[in-house]
Structures
1.
Amino acid sequence: MKGSNATAASTFSEPLRVRQLSHGFESPDGSAVTIFDRLDFSVGHGEIVSIVGRSGAGKSTLFNLISGLLTPQSGVISVGQRADGEAGRIAYMLQKDLMMPWRTVLQNALLGIELYRKVQPDDVASARQMLARYGLGAVADAYPHSLSGGMRQRVALTRTLLVDPTLVLLDEPFSALDYETRLALEDDIIALSARSGTSVVLVTHDIEEAIAMSDRVILLGGRPARIEDQIEIELTTHGPRTAVSAREAPEFRGYHARIWNGLRGQPTSRSAEAAQSSIPAGAVHD
Ligand SMILES: Nc1ncnc2c1ncn2[C@@H]1O[C@H](COP(=O)(O)OP(=O)(O)OP(=O)(O)O)[C@@H](O)[C@H]1O
């Protein structure tokens, strides 16, 4: 399937499959700029994949293409079916929480469902349950202005997850939050994926966040953008992986060095020697 019908439900097993994706824009001087030229990748069930790349690499464009906000000039983007044969569903969460101030927290959480069908009593019960799981039970009937940034972002996360997506796209969702809140939300996503098998694609400038949360990191670079490196993340943690235990894993610095060097356009080292590189801890690439 190509062009206008390029985002489609499919019987492929992967929740997301991108094949031979090409897209570009017209630059201000009228010349054509190719952002993607036959890009290929896929995302597995319950997999968390981070996409990192320099500013302008094409990360947001890729999300807009996957979510259907943009129509690819050519190529195929396939969203796999659910196990029960129903069509898969993508949910897209942005950096801005986009709360409607005149709606309560509960009503904001239900907005995602409302956009495609009538809200049922069961939905309200699920919304209250999920808000409670994210520590928002007591403020479900309050208005967003009384919430902190982290709480608002959790409401946005609830709204994203209530539509029961097979694939969640997160575009720098935590970048405006303080470090502690950020780690807590990273934990929420890691736990969600482990619990429900939801697949997640995350765009971030934060290398630590990418490593801590992901099963795989894709390094996007060049023009047209291509996958410059693809790193399977395997971390030795005591117990299940969390945002903190991931950062304490012995392999963490090696991965950090490889991605950091990749972003700077240096040859990526696939060996542990990369860990020797002098990288500022907590560096955020931009
Ligand atoms: N609608 C558009 N018209 C023309 N050019 C565009 C349009 N949207 C994006 N671009 C260009 O495409 C390129 C990729 O943009 P995109 O926003 O996808 O990058 P990004 O990797 O998400 O950047 P950042 O990390 O800064 O958010 C940029 O050069 C941008 O200027």
2.
Amino acid sequence: MFNSISNQASRLINLTKNRQRESKTKLLTITSGKGGVGKSTFTGNIAYLLSSRGFKVAIVDADIGLANMQVLFDMKPRYTLFDYIEGKVTIDEVLLQTAYKNISLVAGKSGYQYSNHSNSFVFARIVEDIISLNEFDVVLVDTGAGLNEYVKEFLAISDNILAVTTTDPSALTDLYALIKMLSKDKEQLMLCFNHTKNHQIGNTISNSLINLAKKNRLNDNFMVKYIGNVSTSANISTTGRLRKLFSFEFKNDDSTKELQAIIDTLLKNIK
Ligand SMILES: Nc1ncnc2c1ncn2[C@@H]1O[C@H](COP(=O)(O)OP(=O)(O)OP(=O)(O)O)[C@@H](O)[C@H]1O
């Protein structure tokens, strides 16, 4: 899977795994094959719901397509992930306190030219550095959509990967490409559906993907674990537009309850 990443990045993968064993901080990487499926909305709201359960959370916005997290948290970041990677600021300076208690954000930057810098820097190093602080309970990494080398870097260092998808055929095709890649050297992928009417639909589609993986003889030891769905909700799109978190504004909304159920399962599965 990661043949193409540098030796430097491979060393980082091992180092990050050791750090995770030593630190209280759990790493969860949230990804999607296709763009626009709700990955950033999930990341921001999972962060809030975890913080409301008493966890201290850091979010790393590793999306260089559209760095949405600062919009969702209504922030104008002074520094971004890339200022840290380029050595301009310290880890404390790049971890920005959000308006929500116990949530810090490392902001991303839209349109960063990864390929111009990919030989000089290992971007995922920031995750290892946050884990080493031993200050947060959870680090959530929001990767960009797709499977480019930059996204692969952040997937490579994580044993806890959550994919967000819709039931749209193109989203499912991209998801299967992700499953195929991860099955080579990961143990599991957690999967949740956005914009689906009920839990059963997600379950049925997950089972079809698992059967397809079996038919295509993907690694038997790799598990796809369906952990829940969120329905389409006007409250989600409205709060997103207003730069607010739906789970904070609408604590008793069905979609908040659906996301709470996802977090219950997530916490049981996270390593
Ligand atoms: N369940 C939902 N119901 C209604 N609107 C939603 C839902 N989930 C997400 N949205 C809206 O869909 C839009 C896209 O969501 P979001 O930005 O989270 O997607 P993304 O996968 O992170 O996109 P990108 O690939 O651009 O980073 C946003 O306007 C968001 O408010």
3.
Amino acid sequence: MTAIVETRALTKRYGRRTALADCTLTVPAGRVVGLVGPNGAGKSTLLQLACGLLTPTSGTVEVFGRPPAADGAQLGRVGFVAQDTPTYAALTVADHLRLGAKLNPRWDAALAERRVRQLGLDPTQRSGRLSGGQRAQLALTLAVAKRPELLLLDEPVAALDPLARRAFLQSLMEFVAESESQATVVLSSHLVSDLERVCDHLIVLAGSRVQADGEIDDLLATHFRLTTARRDTDTLPAGMRVVNAEHTERQSTFVVRAERAVDDPSWVMEPLGLEDLVLAHLTADPRPVLEPQR
Ligand SMILES: Nc1ncnc2c1ncn2[C@@H]1O[C@H](COP(=O)(O)OP(=O)(O)OP(=O)(O)O)[C@@H](O)[C@H]1O
């Protein structure tokens, strides 16, 4: 497995506030990776460290085996769309494409123009006059026309209505499908449903820490909801790692990580959907429940 982004014990602090703590993970080549977590979890911090806009307080981050933004060539391989999908309000759509062509050696003018046509954007319109959804699409167009091998998108669909959201994610998938050597995408969102539609790998961040990290199919195959007569967490069989536990007077419900389901007539063990899996990790003990997969 080729690692496109690799972090080791990556930590970022602002004064006494920890934005990201002890983050060790790998983004494999050619995957669409969802980065999910609540407000303040550290998603933007991780993405900005990966594109070199922030420097770590401690630990390391490498992109294509080198420090991020090491030089112009390295920068050219990475596309980044920040959370507020920044564009230049006074410049027109066409101006943005001209600027993109001037600044990026691998600029794909045909792709940029085709996308603008398909999206129905008026090339003469100033970006300050575009709707939020159109601006997000313009920012994505600029990022993909760079022909990046790694595309980092910070909550790109946060401000979009459901239709614009779907259109945006659709164009993202088209970019991935069209890229010559399959591009790697990391995309953050609060919404698991969006991520489930397009991602094959997931990173769950909460409280500045990685709570879960892996291929979505593997995560789904190894997480279960276990319902039994009330029992203590430490009486569960070895090999089951409890992510989250809830108890009523008579019943206990656990979300566990285990290699396989266990057939025991005294309990019910069922697979989890992705949304429930993520929620279980978000409401878990603040210490990391799972070691990141290496
Ligand atoms: N420039 C900064 N100065 C001080 N604290 C910061 C700064 N940037 C981020 N933080 C803090 O770091 C933590 C992580 O912030 P970050 O923006 O990475 O989270 P996030 O998961 O992207 O959140 P959101 O979903 O709300 O965008 C938060 O507690 C935030 O207040």
